[in-house]
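Can anyone check this?
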Amino acid sequence: MKLFSKTHTILLLLFGGIFFSFNAIGQKTYSEEEVNTEKIFIEASQEKILGNYENAVDLYNEVLKRDKDNHAAAYELARMYDVLDENDKAEKAIKLAIKLDKSNEWYQSFLADHYQKLNNDKEAANVFGNLVKQYPNNRYFYQKQAYFLVRSKNIPDAIKIYDRIEAKFGLTEELVGKKHSLYLGLGKQKKATRELQKLTNTFPTNIEYHYMLANHFQRIGKNEKAKEIFQKILILDPKDAQANIALASSNNGEESNAIFLSTLKPIFQQEDVDIDLKIKEMIPYIQKVANTGNKKLADAVIELAQILTDVHPNDAKSFSVYGDLLNHSERPKEALVKYMQTLKLDNSVFTVWEQVMYLNLELNDFDALLKTSNEALDLFPNKAKAYYLNGIANSEKRNYTDAIDGFQQALMMSAKNNRMRADIHGRLGEVYHNSKKYTQSDKNFEKALKLNPDAFTILDSYSFHLALRGDQLVKAEQMSKRSIELQPNQPRLQDTYGWILYKMKNYIGAKEWLEKAMTNGGESMPTLLEHYGDILFKLNDKEQALLYWQKAQEKGSSSELLYKKITNKQLFE
């Protein structure tokens, strides 16, 4: 559509450097005043192009002084005011342009944009309402009117416009989706349902539309209705995996999870069923295993996981899910095998590396942890946890310099995670202590507790290392007591406290605390059993002391000092 015919004609002539009387060819002759006005318009347009908007404003205003009916100048003036954020003047100018040329859709669209900028959605809707009246066959104007009605929270009128679009231009998925959502927002479930039913009635062989309706019924709690739709889907496609799963699930009660999972085996054995659909069905049950520890349920899901890896042996996701399931069902060694297979197929997902490293840590396999963390760092040099776990591995391997480097790198990359920073400082405290750098050790323990004062593991570690040095036993006792206040029934914390009392030569008190620790499950902890033997020896019960040293050795302690105690039947400190 032309914005202005006269200006357009004269601009062509002036820019071409040609100006002559049109009388010779039967055209209108322009006055000198008109030509000068057009020159000013051209100059204004040049200033606009150069970004000199204030100059352009002055020139467009000059055009309007000379030619008060020049709607093009009014429009351009509105655009300049808009750029300069002079909103009132922009609105006044664009309204003048519209008054001078009521049929120009671009002018009205600009006014609507102006209202949107001012968050005046109601007026923007009115503008497009006028455009709909002027151009009843332009679908875009209907859509924009409905859009602004929704923004102005006039939902009923927006739905009416969508109804008009449907009546005039026909039914579409997009249109149904919008009306469905709006009806749901108004709490009108029946009308929301009818919208989706229009799609299934109009396109009865389109399975995706049937799924939309079935999922809607499930969301609003009408499971029997959903079941009916899934049955219709199976009439269209008897092998449809998702519908088969949904129908099996609809008959599944909490007490029959394992039975339901067994019904999924034929579907899981189909290679052409999407693996993501299969995994989607497994995830809720994996979560149940994680939350409940139900071994029967775990075994049922594991059967599906095994089928998944058999049918999709080249998809890393199948082994990853299998690993998650084994991990949640407390089978760390088996989980580790599956995660390693995942990495062979796809080593680009850091969370899998993270699972492998934490399992190495849980299994106390520090050689494997060192290897895995080094490999992870080659691929993910910006992951704080990889450096952190590498630091732990080096610390346990007594590579203290490398451990400090790893922890320092992790510290730099975890600036916003105070809990992690506290743990790293605690680890650095241990490493510096083992390196006999006690000042740096204490500084890091203090930083850790400043970041997380209630970290009972850090309090325990700090108190233990102070007691090892033997020069701050009172402070060690206070910290250890505080850790027990935070976690009253932790045998490890009770063992540390008892051992500190032992270092303070309070053997009776130490014996009481270690007995509490054993009552709380510490009878399987080799270090605690060795400490208890030491206390008994100090209390002159040497026969029982030897018995507990031997128990400590049976529970897995490989301490040379413990071996020396047992061999010589004598306490060495």
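Reply from J.R.: I decoded it. Residues 1-118 form a domain with the Serine Threonine Protein Phosphatase 5, Tetratricopeptide repeat fold (CATH 1.25.40.10).
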